């Protein structure tokens, strides 16, 4: 699916809407949006920060999620999720997503706006930690307009 990225977003992830993602009313179940956000977040993390899926090292935990549903997502829709980091703090950062759907009429529209606050976390020590400099450097190189 080709769409024009929303202003300020350069990372994108195409997501296939599966039949099993639907609720009895025929649109994507609201819980699936968290899965879609996770897919976009992990792809961003791999592409921008070089994450290699090492779950034994420093990680991330979700502290907050906000989802604004604008239009329903349907089975035959094409879905592109645009992702950016909008803020990096001492121990956390904010990620924003724009879900763009293209339906049967081929018109692209914003279906969902979502954001998450993610905390850098040391799983061995079971505590939050400072966002590593390497993460910060790579994100700022990719997203020069991030609020710090």
Provide an overview of this structure.
It contains 2 helices and 6 strands. By secondary structure, the chain is an alpha+beta fold. Strands 1, 2, 3, 4, 5 and 6 form a 6-stranded antiparallel beta sheet that branches. A hairpin with a 4-residue loop joins strand 5 and strand 6. It is globular and about 45 Å long.
Any descriptors?
alpha+beta; globular; Thiol Ester Dehydrase, Chain A; 37% strand; 148 residues; 6-stranded antiparallel sheet; 2 helices
* Count of individual beta strands: 6
| Series of H and E elements | EHEEEEEH
Radius of gyration: 16 Å
The residue ranges in which pLDDT falls below 50 over 5 or more consecutive positions are none
Secondary-structure blueprint:
Layout: E1 11-15, H1 32-49, E2 59-69, E3 78-88, E4 92-102, E5 108-122, E6 127-128, H2 133-142
Task: Give me a quick take on this structure.
The chain is of the alpha+beta class and 148 residues long.
């Amino acid at each position: 699916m080709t769409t024009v990225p929303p202003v300020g977003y350069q990372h994108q992830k195409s997501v296939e809407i599966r039949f099993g993602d639907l609720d009895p009313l025929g649109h994507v179940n609201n819980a699936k949006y968290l899965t879609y956000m996770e897919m976009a977040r992990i792809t961003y993390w791999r592409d921008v920060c070089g994450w290699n899926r090492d779950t034994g090292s420093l990680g991330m935990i979700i502290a907050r999620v906000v989802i604004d549903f604008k239009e329903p997502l349907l089975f035959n829709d094409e879905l592109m999720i645009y992702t950016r980091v909008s803020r990096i703090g001492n121990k956390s950062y904010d990620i924003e997503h724009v879900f763009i759907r293209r339906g049967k009429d081929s018109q692209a529209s914003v279906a969902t706006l979502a954001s998450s606050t993610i905390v850098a976390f040391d799983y061995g020590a079971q505590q939050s930690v400072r966002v590593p400099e390497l993460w910060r450097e790579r994100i700022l190189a990719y997203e020069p307009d991030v609020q710090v």
